[in-house]
Specification:
Elements (H helix, E strand, L loop, with lengths): L1 H34 L5 H5 L3 H20 L6 H38 L3 H32 L2 H5 L1 H6 L1 H11 L1 H16 L7 E4 L2 E8 L3 E6 L4 E5 L1 H5 L3 E2 L7 E9 L5 H13 L4 E13 L4 E9 L2 H22 L25 H8 L3
Antiparallel strand pairs: 1-2, 1-5, 2-3, 3-4, 6-8, 7-8
Length: about 375
């Protein structure tokens, strides 16, 4: 009877104690979150209640399993399994706590600073820092798990002795991967490109959606995703429309007939921009920039506060200007001349043209 009751007490007591401690801790975190609503730290820490309870249960079972006297023939294997679970859950809990602290710091920074560029910069750095922390914690946890096996401890000396050679070989083999990782750190702390920036890469216009240590994702205007290695942004030129001030100047080209009323088009451009909410009112203008034998090129210059608004202003000006010309001044639209060309005057012997002779022979 004692052999049956003892394992139930040990295992059941560990599980019950884990549930009670986890419930009490979660209750304290909820009260702290309610009392300090200005900071999201306590609410974010509640996300770690599952790994926290796993850590408690694994630690209690690992410490009291010998007293249960259950499955004595497999005591070593079960003890090692509990140790592995404990190490893994501790790593999980550390990552959750680090994420809560980092996210809280970012939230406070975003609340204090109103500059979108600086906020996006910190957000990019925070994201990459969390990825580095998760990778380091994961590597340490895996190493700790491997060291629980005696064979791994015995091979430690030989691994350390050959670490230099292995490091050189790994560096040569993973040269591109390492360069991408260093490029990711350079992007994070060099303020070259940030999450949310509007960029133009390889002729594609889009917004930076994700930055990792090895790749960067750009979401285009038609909702496609372009994934590029981060080393591209450190080795090749690209356009960053969000760096500095997001204000932009846009150009609309129109091809019209030579008889087009340029002054009236300038007035119409001002009327269109006054009714366009996307125009920021900084500047506007309309000038003739080029001519061809058939048309005249007119350039309308407009401004807006960011890339999205400049697109709206340009399409609005182009659409309404063409519609106004077609309705009010249809003669100003480009035309193809289909009339026969006037032939040159005919020449007659003696050096005079036939038109001159006809004029001389006409009675006065």
């Amino acid at each position: 009877m004692e052999n049956l009751i003892r394992p139930v007490i040990v295992v059941g007591g560990s599980v019950l104690l884990t549930v009670l401690i986890g419930w009490a801790t979660d209750l304290l975190l909820r009260k702290a979150d309610t009392r300090h609503s200005e900071t999201p730290l306590w609410g974010l820490l509640r996300r770690g209640r599952v790994p926290y309870q796993v850590v408690l249960c694994a630690a209690l079972l690992r410490g009291s399993y010998d007293q249960a006297q259950l499955l004595d023939d497999h005591r070593t294997g079960i003890g090692r399994a509990l140790t592995l679970v404990l190490i893994g859950s501790v790593a999980w809990l550390v990552v959750r706590i680090a994420a809560a602290v980092v996210e809280t710091s970012y939230s406070r920074y975003a609340r204090v600073h109103r500059d979108p560029a600086r906020v996006r910069r910190v957000r990019t750095q925070v994201t990459l820092i969390m990825r580095v922390v998760s990778a380091v914690v994961g590597v340490v946890a895996v190493a700790a798990m491997l060291l629980t096996f005696p064979a791994m401890r015995a091979a430690g000396a030989s691994l350390l002795a050959s670490a230099g050679i292995l490091g050189i070989v790994a560096g040569v083999a993973a040269q591109s991967t390492l360069s991408n990782m260093f490029a990711g750190l350079q992007i994070a702390f060099g303020d070259m490109v940030r999450i949310g920036d509007t960029v133009v890469v390889d002729g594609e216009w889009g917004t930076v959606e994700e930055i990792t240590l090895t790749f960067l994702t750009v979401r285009t205007w038609d909702e496609r995703r372009i994934t590029m290695p981060v080393s591209y942004f450190t080795s090749k030129p690209f356009e960053n429309w969000s760096r500095g001030t997001p204000q932009m100047t846009g150009i609309v080209y129109l091809h019209v007939d030579h008889t087009a009323p340029v002054d009236a088009m300038r007035e119409k451009l001002r009327d269109i921009l006054r009714e366009c909410p996307a125009w920021d009112g900084r500047a506007c203008g309309l000038d003739v920039t080029d001519t061809t034998p058939n048309t005249m090129q007119v350039r309308a210059l407009v401004t807006a506060k960011d890339a999205d608004d400049i697109w709206t202003v340009r399409v609005t000006v182009r659409e309404q200007m063409v519609r106004w010309l077609a309705k009010e001044h249809p003669y100003a639209l480009p035309r193809v001349n289909t009339a026969d060309a006037t032939p040159p005057p005919a020449r007659i012997p003696g050096g005079r043209s036939s038109s001159a002779d006809g004029a001389a022979a006409r009675p006065t």
